[in-house]
Amino acid sequence: MARVSGAAIAQRQRARRVAICGSRHHACGPWAGWNLRRDSTLASCLHRTTRIPMPEALPDATLARLFREARTHNAIGGEVDDATLRALYDLLKFGPTEANSCPARFVFVRSPEAKAKLAPALSDGNRDKTLAAPVTVIVGHDLAFYDKLPVLFPHTDARSWFAGSDQARLERVGLRGSSMQGAYLILAARALGLDCGPMSGFDNAMVDAAFFAGTSIRSNILVNLGHGDPAQLFPRSPRLSFDEAARIE
Ligand SMILES: Cc1cc2nc3c(=O)[nH]c(=O)nc-3n(C[C@H](O)[C@H](O)[C@H](O)COP(=O)(O)O)c2cc1C
């Protein structure tokens, strides 16, 4: 049997990788996606995904539930039990965040005592509906989110990427992540049959003092949760068309 040299094997492997990604500029393997952060020439690998079998789009009724027919509710009632809140978290936690930092922290405000703590911080227009909602979620973010990175991103020292950064950067990363996780919360809630009323009309410093005193957690948004009364919805406001909001380059 003919001996195959190491160089020939390497060449064969390289040819196979090029066959997959079509590029001769770099080695490309299953790790290429992660390397994209460091090597922009790997962007040409993105078309490799065309070889990956794509699952079907979700049924139209599901898309309608999550997006087209879902509304921001002002009159929210009903009940939301602990098991539902845990199921909600166990879905939203899988949404992606920067370096898997998962900076959002959630307080599910449900008891009359907790609602009373929240009430003074609410804008006048948001107070009554928030007190009437079965649950109001405070979505905040931990500015010391990096302390969890040894667990959340264990394959490298990601903590050192953020620890010691200035407050502005930590606030930026935390706010970005908790905003995304807030959006995951809204979609997860809709998927579980709940309605949402997200709000930024409140005094963040007052919420921070009432719920997060002595911690590195800062509030971002509030989300009323429960079952909305469709009879009390305002007409849907328009959205920007694709051409107004987007372009394909
Ligand atoms: C981050 C955020 C902050 C919001 N703040 C408030 C608020 O303080 N009070 C309020 O009544 N609605 C608030 N809204 C609701 C928006 O006005 C509403 O989601 C938007 O008009 C779309 O409505 P629709 O989902 O029914 O189409 C907020 C929504 C978001 C996502």
From TrEMBL:
Pfam families: Nitroreductase. The lineage of its organism: Bacteria, Pseudomonadati, Pseudomonadota, Gammaproteobacteria, Lysobacterales. Transmembrane segments: none annotated. Belongs to the nitroreductase family. HadB/RutE subfamily. Its EC number is 1.-.-.-. Keywords: Flavoprotein, FMN, NAD, NADP, Oxidoreductase. It comes from Luteimonas padinae. Its cofactor is FMN. This is Putative NADH dehydrogenase/NAD(P)H nitroreductase ACFFFU_01890. Residues 48-211 form the Nitroreductase domain. GO terms for molecular function: 3-hydroxypropionate dehydrogenase (NADP+) activity. Coiled coil: none annotated. The keyword Lipid biosynthesis does not apply. The keyword Protein transport does not apply.
